[in-house]
Amino acid sequence: MEQSNDLIDQSREVNSDVLIAKTYFSGFEKAHDTYNALSTASDGKVYYILSSNTLESGKLCRYDPDTDSTEILADLNDICGERDSMSIPQGKSHSRIYEMEGKLYIATHVGYYEIIGGIERLPVNPPEGYKLYPGGHLISYDLTTGKFEDLIRVPGAEGLVTMTMDTVRGHIYAISWPTGRFLHYDIKKNELKDLGTFSGNGEGGVVGEDYRVLCRSIFVDPRDGSVYSSTAEGDIFKYDLQEGSFSKLKGVNLRLDYFGNYDPTRPGSMGYNWRKIFWYEPEGVAYGVHGNSGYLFRFNPKKSSVEIVDRIASEPSQRSGMFDQFTYGYLGLILGPDKETIYYLTGGPIYEDGELLRGDDNIYVGAKGLENLHLVTYNLPRREYKDHGPVFYENGSRPTYVNSIAVGRDGAVYTLARFEHNGNIIQDLVKIPAPL
Fold this sequence. Notes:
The chain is mainly β. It is about 5% helix and about 40% strand. The protein contains three helices and 32 strands. It has an eight-stranded mixed beta sheet. A four-stranded antiparallel beta sheet has the order 2-3-4-5. The longest helix has 9 residues, at about 5-15. It is globular and about 55 Å long. It starts with 5 loop residues before the first helix and ends with a strand.
C-alpha cells in the first residue's frame, strides 16, 4: 500500500480540496465489506455492522464521538440464538439501522456464499460439519437497557438484502435474498406477511432468463404508509398498506436514456434499479440516485412521475464522462441533519502522468479498477452542488469499497471502508471531517 503524502500531493494538483479521514479498528480482525449497515442514533452515537464472509458471524458495533472510541456490542449469531447451531452464520446486515421509540431495528443477512456458475449464490452445499443457512432475522436493541430481542426469522431460509421502516406506524419492510420476496412485518402485532416475488426469480434465477438483480433501497411515503421499490427492468412497484397489495405502477419507469443501457437478465450491474433513495418531506417526493451514472432524480408518487434533477457524480467523473468503477454504483447517499443537504460518497477517476486509468470491463460484480473516493454535497432548495474533493487516509492510501454513510450531529461523515490493519485488509469505521 502506497505510503507518504505522494498521492495526496498529486490529487491537490487536480482537485482544489482534499479530505483526510481517520480509521478505527473496532476489534474484528475478519471484518469484510459492509453495505448500508451504518446509522446514527438519538443518543448521538454511531451504530454499524462489521460483516464477515467466513464462518464467523458479523458484529454489531458502536462509536462514541464524545470519547472517540469504538466497541463491539454483540455477535449477530448470539443475538439470533444461533451460537451453537453449527449453521452458516448471520454474516452481515445489508440495510440501514432504524430507530423507533428508543429501539434500534436491524435486519440480518448471509455473508458466506457458494460460487455456482461463476456467481455468488446462497449455499446449497454447506461446509463439512455445518448446516445450511437458517434464514435472516429482524432484531431490536434497546438504547436504554441494552437488551436485544430476536423478533422473527424469515421463512424459506433466505437472507434480508434490503430493509426499510415506517417509524410512524411501526412497520418493517424487507426484500429477501436470493429470490426477492417482498415482506411486511407489523411490530405491534408481531405478524409477517409474504407478498411473494416481484422481480423474476431475483438473484437466484437463471442468467439470461429469470435472473434479476434486486433493489437495495426501498422507501416509505409517510403520508399514507405506501412503500416503493424498483426492479432491474426499471419498473416501480408500490405496496399499498391499506389494501395489502403489491403492484407495478403504470405510466412511469426508470428506463431513462441518461442512466445507460442494460440487460436486466444478466448480472454485472443494478440495471435500471435506483441505487439509493430517500423521502424528502418538504416537496412530498423521493430523491434517488442511479448508481453507475450518478444522476439524481425526483420521484413523485402522487403524480407518478420521474424527473432528472442533476448529475451528482464527482467533478472528475463529470469531466471524463465515466461511470463509477464499482459495477453497482455506490450506496453512500443520505439526507443530512439540516434536512436539506444531500451527502454522497462516490467515485472519481484517477489520472497518472496525464493518462486516465481505466478498469477491467470483464469484471461482472465489484470494482473494475481503482478510483478515488469523493465526498459530494448537494443542497436541494438551492440546487447547489459541491465536490469536496477526494478522501485519503493519513498515510496517503485510498478508502475503497465504500457503500455506507452516516452524518453526525457535528457534520462529520462516517462510512465503512477498506484499509490495512496488522498487514491484512479489513473493512471498518472511517470518519471524514465535516465538509460544511
